[in-house]
Amino acid sequence: MSADSLNYRIGVDVGDRSVGLAAIEFDDDGFPIKKLAMVTFRHDGGMDPATGKTPKSRKETAGVARRTMRMRRRKKKRLKELDKKLRDLGYFVPRDEEPQTYEAWSSRARLAESRFEDPQECGEHLVRAVRHMARHRGWRNPWWSFSQLEEASQKSSETFGRILERAQHEWGERVSDNATLGMLGALAANNNILLRPRRYEHNPKTGKNAEKLNVRGQEPILLDKVRQEDVLAELRRICEVQGIEDQYPELAHAVFTQVRPYVPTERVGKDPLQPMKIRASRASLEFQEFRIRDAVANLRIRVGGSERRPLTEEEYDRAVDYLMEYSDTAPPTWGEVADELEIAENTLIAPVIDDVRLNVAPYDRSSAIVEAKLKRKTQARQWWDDDANLDLRSQLILLVSDATDDTARIAENSGLLEVFESWSDEEKQTLQDLKFDSGRAAYSIDTLNKLNAYMHEHRVGLHEARQNVFGVSDTWRPPRDRLDEPTGQPTVDRVLTIVRRFILDCERAWGRPQKIVVEHARTGLMGPSQRADVLKEITRNRNANERIRQELRAGGVENPNRADIRRNSIIQDQESQCLYCGKEVGVLTAELDHIVPRAGGGSSKRENLAAVCRACNASKGSRPFAVWAGPARLERTIQRLRELQAFKTKSKKRMLNAIIRRLKQREEDEPIDERSLASTSYAATSIRERLEQHFNDDLPDGFAPVSVDVYGGSLTRESRRAGGIDKSIMLRGQSDKNRFDVRHHAIDAAVMTLLNPSVAVTLEQRRMLKQENDYSSPRVQHDNGWRDFIGRGEASQSKFLHWKKTAVVLADLISEAIAQDTIPVVNPLRLRPQNGSVHKDTVEAVLERTVGDSWTDKQVSRIVDPDTYIAFLSLLGKKKELEADHQRLVSVSAGVKLLAEERVQIFPEEAASILTPRGVVKIGDSIHHARLYGWKNQRGDIQVGMLRVFGAEFPWFMRESGVKDILRVPIPQGSQSYRDLAPTVRKNIENDKAVEFGWFTQNDELEIDPFDYIQHGGKDKLARFLSYMPESRWRIDGISMNNKLRIRPNLLSGEELPAKVYGKELSEEQYKLLEETLKTGLIIATEGLLSLKSARIVRRNNLGIPRWRGNGHLPTSLDIQRAAAQALEGRD
């Protein structure tokens, strides 16, 4: 921190789709003195809202769309080149594409069966057949070259064999063993047999779409995947039969040309130790080995009291071999490594890498995934087990997980590609579907090999190996990613963007912070699909716990809590007997004992808990079980444990071994330290390293480094409770944390600014002591002595007592901010033109009518061409219908007139749509923003309406007008956006009474005076809601109708709905309305809402401060009535 900087700290609370941020100024004694900024940002985690029940990120769906467009663009180019090649060979090629009928199958069959004598007839059939093949050429391995495809085509594929068997079963002797795909297609056409799979209507009985069988129960002939090698063989046969073998190479290359997919090498980061080489994939076996060797080299074994020693060479080799050969998909524990080394679990000290303790042992995850998914009898698995060395195994993993041009070239040169292609389609598909570690290591494959070799030979860690192999200094470390570099994970990037902008604005305003503390929830940094899986798991566990609660209530337990549920589960595992003596116990009499205690609270993981009787627990006290029991009782207890049915399944074997290790342990566990509390997830590490890079790399003289701590878990909750903050602040009349109000994330972030490593350890020890107390005895005997725990050692106690004093001061600052309403909730706006999919996937056929037909006003509104629509609109005038007129002449534009018999394209439905090369698609979900229009009514009051702008039309708008600013580009009268106008708004615009004065979009903050709406807005649901919840800040959640908005309270969340608000019980009707408002939002008429004198659109900067003046192109806030009045006065 420089002399010009304020003494302030930044706290970050990453919740589930919300980020709380706080900057708090402190005095020299460490007491908070001023709230600089507190704000909660909501975000969507990068999820595409159109994906519904199967959530995917915008990045993923955009990637699919981009690849689809690229595929179609390449196909169009390939077909155009094919037509040119056919013309160069002297064939007549129709200018327009021929209808896709079964006639082409017939041409393919005839060309392969017998030679045409008439060259013109042969050419006609050949052009039709070759163009059909090019459009339906089937699948091939994307890495295959043409020569490999040619070689594979010398014999039929497995899939074609199955297709042939199906055809012979259907038609018998009519299908020869050397039939081609064209012959089978012609037979199917002539016999009314289903050729390809079709998707039929949704079956309400099965709940699925019929894809395999048609309505008559027939199985399609081409049920299996068509392979390009079979189509190529057919083309070669056609050329041979027709005597045009010399044309075969040119035709084959034109039909089967393909661009090999790969990631360009220049887009991959470079190795800092060998800058000419690219960084290796984290899935590579070289990186898996590197990670294991570095971790094992940093393991330490406790000897005696505090002395620690590194592993011997034999221990090092045994640990590395164990982790390299580990084949379970669940990560190994350090306890299992200790078993392998034949030492007590508590004597093996987990390694510390980059100041973070590795709580889970690394292992060769890539190999474990392959061996778990590939069955032993498959060719691929036999090659993996018997023939492949480490290099070939790694090449295979890179081939299916990291398709750069380098990996494909290496696989081809080593012969792996040929081996890969010899495996069955099912095996290859299995490999390509495997989910390996994503991202890049810091070093290249070559560097990793050199480091691994040195670490193996000398049994040392990365630090020493790097110095000796590459001659770098003792302080050298690979360059870290910059704060503005994306991670590639959409949710992490969304969070990182919010955090980066806030921190950089803080730095500009107040200088470098003293420290930054980050805490993240379990799902806070997860992608959409992973988050959905976790939320489903949480829901299942919650439902299961609720069933157990019901059972406990039926058994006489009143108001069972989480400890009762845990106790009940363990008692059931132990078959209602004390683990130590075998005496019968029940939920009301059993106590949960920590098998191995620890100063500051024992571990409450399942393997360290045992249901025991009161006598055994009292006798054992706070000693490790093995010390109390002695050898004989220890053996009896282990035998009793092995006889329990709950631990005889394969899935519980690891748990059984873990419990046995705890029973044998004779020393207490080491007290926890601050390094074991740091979050070790890849996402959290990425955020921490980027923050440290920004503030601490290349630090100028006179600047102190900024401390960056990242925690995962529940430290904030413990901080609020232990510091008394929960009881000191009030959110909507409630003390204690209130998830109902989203501002709690900003409050948590402020609390994080107080945290230091010593206090974090004490808070974790308090949590563990409380948990130990809850589990150890029935609730009536609970001792709340844990509340008095303030740390182990005088230094820790002193820091904790000082922290409690600072928490009291901070609570006052937070309460003041709540009272002054200076903790905003911000929803980032998406204003780029490319904002998700611009149209529905379903493609419909365009309809046609003649100019002279009768036309209703609704049919006119569906006319595709904008100029034709405007011309018909002029003819229609105020009428509802145009009668049929076979003499009608319509002037579309200068010099262009439509006769009565000419055809006009119309959309199939009265819905916003556009015409694409493939047909009509709807664009109603692509609303980018809405333009605001104001006019005065007869009383002179300003009324406000809107025009919704569809993002799908931006290319046309910008092309027609030359304006690139999507918020100001003119909207043509013939556009779908203009046609969508509500009648009142359209009337005022066309009568030149309305003027455009602003815009708003989804996620904009709408501020209203609740009492103003109750008095002037009407008696709708919003008015009823405001009568007992006077919320002034709302979020525009949707613009799905042309005259209504969907809004939700901006400060509220549906996470935990309260039964009381502001101290008053909610009635059943009020609770239902509250639930509806938060879960689905309220649909409110635009006229009554936006025409309020108090209505304002509030847009804020990164610190949460409203932005009322322009700063570059950043959007500014809008006082709707004032802006409309100014626009109307300016026009007059």
TrEMBL record:
Entries under Pfam families matching the protein: Cas9_a (PF18470), Cas9_b_hairpin (PF17893), Cas9_C (PF18525), Cas9_Topo (PF17894), HNH_5 (PF14279), RuvC_III (PF18541)
- What are the alphabetically sorted keywords of the record? Antiviral defense, DNA-binding, Endonuclease, Hydrolase, Magnesium, Manganese, Metal-binding, Nuclease, RNA-binding
Instruction: Please state every residue range assigned to the domain named HNH Cas9-type.
Output: 527-677
List, in alphabetical order, the GO biological process terms annotated in this UniProt record.
Answer: defense response to virus
* Record InterPro entries: Cas9 (IPR028629), Cas9_alpha-helical_lobe (IPR040619), Cas9_b_hairpin (IPR040796), Cas9_C (IPR041217), Cas9_Topo (IPR041225), HNH_5 (IPR029471), HNH_CAS9 (IPR033114), HNH_nuc (IPR003615)
Q: Does the keyword Membrane apply?
A: no
Which residue ranges are recorded for the region named Disordered? 46-65
Needed cofactors, names only, are:
Mg(2+)
Q: Which domain of life is it from?
A: Bacteria
Report whether Repeat shows up as a keyword of the record: no
GO MF annotation terms: DNA binding; endonuclease activity; hydrolase activity; metal ion binding; RNA binding
Q: Which NCBIfam families does the protein's record reference? A: cas_Csn1
Query: How would you summarize the oligomeric state and partners of this protein?
Result: Monomer. Binds crRNA and tracrRNA.
Q: How is this protein named in the record? A: HNH Cas9-type domain-containing protein
- What is the native source organism of this protein? Rothia dentocariosa
